[in-house]
Amino acid sequence: MKLFIFPLTVLVMTSCVMQKTAVSLQVTYTEQYCGGARPSEELQENAEKNKPYANRTLVFVSQTGKIDSSRTDAQGNLGIKLKKGSYSIFEAWRFNLFTPEDLPIESFDRECLKQEWTQPYGSLLLDKKTMVFKKLNPIIKYCSWRAPCLLQQEIPPGR
In sequence order, what E strands does the chain have? Predict the structure, then answer.
């Protein structure tokens, strides 16, 4: 009987320590106005409105280096179960060392991109009773000619 109780106790204690917390976030983005002419006030406001970050992946990196990811739904809602701790949250392009809008890397200043890749979208702190999320850098959908770190900022394409 003692041989059965000891492994069972260890299993219960391990599962208590390894419990994960359900995290739910609503993720939004804004976009730059990408038209050629100066936008009307209404167009500018519409571009700057928060929109659901739909069907996109975010990467969660713990202080210990553990990596998890989750994909948002059509309304920008994200759900993931994480162990208690501190996390940095990155857009997939930043974490995977890609370029904004998946543009050719030859068009970018590499040193500048290295800085961009380190910029998390937010931080998340999970403890026994609370979840604290801080948005550190907004998610922005860039115009292809105004993305950060481009070697040559271009004018909008003509029609």
Answer: 20-26, 28-31, 51-52, 57-62, 67-71, 77-83, 85-91, 122-126, 131-135, 139-141
The candidate with the shortest Cα–Cα distance to 91, out of 71, 74, 108, is 71
Q: DSSP H helical segments within 1-154, as ranges?
A: 2-17, 41-48, 92-95, 110-117
pLDDT of 36 reads 73
Largest CA distance in the chain: 81
Q: Give backbone dihedrals phi and psi of 106, rounded to 5 degrees, phi first.
A: -65, -20
**Whole-number Å distance between alpha carbons of 37 and 17:** 58
**What pLDDT digit, counting tens, does each position of 28-81 carry?**
999 988 877 888 898 888 888 999 999 999 999 999 999 999 999 999 999 999
- What domains appear along the chain, each with residue ranges and CATH number? 19-141 (2.60.40.10)
